[in-house]
Design a protein that fits this description.
heterodimer; A: mainly alpha; MetI-like fold; 2 domains; 13 helices; 69% helix; globular; B: alpha/beta; D-Maltodextrin-Binding Protein, domain 2; 5-stranded mixed sheet; 3-stranded parallel sheet; 14 helices; 14 strands; binds glutathione; signal (chain B); transport (chain B); General L-amino acid transport system substrate-binding protein (chain B); Bact_solute-bind_prot3 (chain B); Solute-binding_3/MltF_N (chain B)
Chain lengths: 402, 337
């Protein structure tokens, strides 16, 4: 009797067993989520079919039929496919995001340090810069720079003669410079560059070890700079001697009927977007830098001085590494912002991913679901990529507890 | 509890398949207004004034639909759309009808989920240049920088044209029409290209309209017309016959001024159109006075043309091919019978 009543709860425990229950609900939830996702997908498909909207990714292989103003060195013509148009616009987005991030970082650090300057004028100028550019909507700044770039520049027809060759020039069709053409033997230059970089890394490792062991320092920076610049030049000279002529030639822009033909062109749309994005983002970075430096207590500097370190090494070895720990996380989000903000390119005809792919291609093919999905995936990957890199850098910079 | 909600949401989505093609007519009647997609400001076609009142040839079409369906030409909500986003807006149900100088093409009609209902302006693509360039023909444009809109047939035609002529060009494509005009005016491009009607309209916005010329070449066919969502035939019929009614009214000599008088006419064609005979209105799911309301409140095609884009407007566009077939043009609407 008592035994039986004890066995009963043991039997019912299969239903009451919290673990089994948990697993059961997990499975049910998973099925529900999968079914939910499938329903959305199936529904979209059915509805699009009912409305006569094409679907699938086959469109990437159809002919695009439109021109793109900046093709980033890729093969692209009106006969190319939508897939190629996607690649070109993706590269254009990466170009503007990367150059923007580099410029915004440099300008932001300068402004952030200037804001803490003891020089009254410099400090006020930096403050004015930050407050102005942080508080004006970015789109407005893009338009401002675009028209500020375009309006004062002359048209090529008004300043050049027909047939004239131009090495460097700026006009309302863009900034022109010679386009380097790498001929036979130019491989030596690249080999020089790669060897230079590797040698610098090796020397750096060696110098650190030597300093650990002997305390002696080695001028890694200048040596590395010398190698990275010197070796390619050496390669160039060797190639010139062997080949009897320079391996690199320059193609100049030539004035044709309406505008300059050839040469290396930076279009005004890029210039305006680049200035706007970097100036705007730098204002935010400057504030991050300022707060980062202020976060390092003055006692650190005093202690370093007491140990006999001069001002330069104090800043480089004591203050900046500690400030960076505070600066890097918000810096990452500024980089992500800049990347995403680069999609405002559409407004001024810079052919980025949103303008060309999520714009023209979407309009031409009507495949909103596929195209927006691809576009979101691209921005997500760019953001995640940036985050991963910055997290790695952050971990490298973080305090190593011993 | 959470699970139940999830289940309910899933069911709602899974079974809503049939809901998606619900009749636009019922939605419009329930809302008491038509949602009409127009341009972001193209004088003569769809343009807001200082108080936000829209007017133009394309706007009149939406007003005519509202008059036919709801008996009130003001029962329209206008949504300004860039060329780029207009089709998505229609596909997603943000608007009920797209009346925005849109070219009827095979791709758009067949794979974008649109249904074109006719042509309210026969046009072609042209080029505008500064007079001081001294260019007389489009064949002299080799190497030119060309400003235009993204998401247009214009962008494609210009590529085709320059390629066929074996000429180089660079295309600078903006999303907003106003930015195209501003960039062209600032000298970014040698050429501004779009539909010729668009050139006439946008020219008004240039700093010095007289300093520019439109070149003689017409490089494409641009039949501009309204479109609705694919798959709702009734709504498509209403849109198609709204346009036909406006054109037929002109042909039959019915105007907003004489439409009341005309209601007493013995001409059977007029009687059928104005609903004193036959059941055309009822067949469309509308009242018998659907066409009467269109003409009374909006006017016939000719009246609207003259008031919006005709020779006495800033656009100064002659009727040309857009005249009735009886007057040497190609405007020819199917009869109401
Ligand atoms: N008809 C062409 C071009 C239509 C188009 O968007 N044209 C421009 C230039 S005229 C326009 O309407 N802009 C006015 C606006 O965007 O507000 C098409 O359907 O693709």
């Amino acid at each position: 009797m008592t035994l039986g009543s004890e066995a009963a709860p043991a039997k019912s425990s299969i239903i009451n067993d919290p673990q089994i229950r948990a697993i059961f609900y997990q499975i049910v939830a998973l099925i529900a989520v999968l079914w939910f996702g499938w329903s959305i997908w199936d529904n979209t498909q059915t509805n699009m079919e009912a409305r006569g909207i094409a679907s699938g990714f086959g469109f990437l292989e159809s002919t695009a039929g439109f021109g793109i103003i900046q093709t980033a060195g890729l093969e692209y013509s009106e006969e190319s496919t939508y897939g190629q148009a996607f690649l070109v616009s993706l590269i254009n987005t990466i170009i503007i995001a990367f150059t923007g991030v580099v410029a915004a970082t440099i300008l932001g650090f300068i402004m952030g340090v200037a804001r803490l300057s003891h020089n009254w004028l410099i400090q006020k100028l930096a403050t004015a810069y930050i407050e102005t550019f942080r508080n004006i909507p970015l789109l407005l700044q893009i338009f401002f720079w675009y028209h500020a770039v375009l309006k004062p520049l002359p048209s090529p027809r008004s300043i050049y003669e027909r047939g004239e060759e131009i090495a460097f020039g700026i006009n309302n069709r863009g900034a022109y410079m010679p386009d380097p053409v790498f001929g036979d033997g130019s491989n030596l230059i690249w080999i020089g560059l790669i060897v230079g970089i590797i040698a610098t890394i090796v020397i750096d490792k060696w110098a650190v070890k030597r300093q650990m062991n002997t305390g002696e320092q080695f001028p890694v920076f200048y040596t590395g700079l010398g190698l990275i610049i010197g070796l390619p030049i050496l390669g160039y000279l060797m190639a010139t001697v062997f080949m009897g002529s320079s391996p690199v030639t320059f193609e100049y822009a030539v004035m044709k009927g309406f505008q300059l033909d050839g040469g290396f062109v930076i279009i005004p749309e890029f210039i305006a977007l680049f200035i706007a994005l970097s100036v705007y983002t730098a204002a935010f970075i400057a504030e991050n830098v300022r707060s980062g430096i202020q976060a390092v207590s003055h006692g650190q500097t005093e202690a370093a001085h007491a140990l006999g370190l001069r001002n330069g090494p104090t800043l480089r070895l004591i203050v900046i590494p500690q400030a960076l720990r505070v600066i890097i996380p918000p810096l990452t989000s500024q980089y992500l912002n800049l990347t995403k903000n680069s999609s405002l390119a559409t407004a001024i005809a810079y052919p980025d991913l949103v303008s060309v792919f999520a714009g023209t291609v979407l309009n031409q093919t009507g495949q909103a679901v596929e195209i927006i999905a691809i576009t979101m995936a691209v921005y997500l990957s760019l953001s995640v990529g940036t985050s991963i890199f910055m997290n790695w850098y952050n971990a490298k910079m973080a305090l190593v507890e011993r | 509890m959470k699970f139940k909600t999830l289940l309910a949401a899933g069911a709602a989505i899974a079974f809503s398949t049939t809901m998606a093609s619900a009749a636009t007519l019922d939605d419009v009647k329930a809302a008491g207004k038509i949602k009409c997609g127009v341009s972001q400001g193209l004088p003569g076609f769809s343009n807001p004034d200082d108080e936000g009142n829209w007017s133009g040839l394309d706007v009149a079409f939406c007003r005519a639909m509202a008059a036919a369906v709801l008996g009130d030409s003001n029962a329209v909500e206008f949504t300004p759309l860039s060329a780029k986003v207009r089709f998505t807006a229609l596909q997603s149900g943000e608007i009920d009808v797209l009346s925005r100088n849109t070219t009827w093409t095979a791709t758009r009609d067949n794979s974008l989920g649109l249904e074109f209902v006719g042509v309210n302006y026969y046009d072609g693509q042209g080029f505008m240049v500064r007079k001081d360039l001294g260019v007389k023909s489009a064949t002299e444009l080799s190497g030119a920088a060309v400003c235009t809109n993204t998401g247009t047939t214009t962008e494609l035609n210009v590529a085709d044209y320059f390629r066929a002529q074996g000429m180089d060009y660079t295309v600078v494509a903006f999303e907003k029409a106003d930015e195209v005009v501003a960039a062209y005016d600032a000298g970014r491009c040698d050429v501004y290209t779009t539909d010729r009607s668009g050139l006439a309209a946008q020219r008004v916005k240039l700093a010095d309209p007289e300093a520019h010329v439109v070149l003689p070449e017409i490089i494409s066919k641009e039949p501009l017309g309204p479109a609705v969502r694919h798959g709702d035939n009734q709504w498509g019929d209403i849109a198609r016959w709204t346009l036909n009614a406006m054109i037929n009214a002109e042909e039959l000599g019915i105007t907003s001024a004489n439409v009341d008088e005309m209601k007493g006419s013995d001409n059977p064609s007029i009687k059928r159109l104005l609903g004193t005979e036959g059941s055309v209105g009822a067949d469309l799911g509308l009242g018998a006075d659907w066409a009467y309301n269109i003409v009374k409140q909006v006017g016939n095609y000719g009246e609207v043309y003259d008031a919006t884009v005709g020779p006495n407007t800033p656009l100064k566009l002659d009727r040309g091919v857009n005249a009735l077939w009886t007057q040497g043009g190609i405007l020819y609407a199917a009869p109401v019978r």
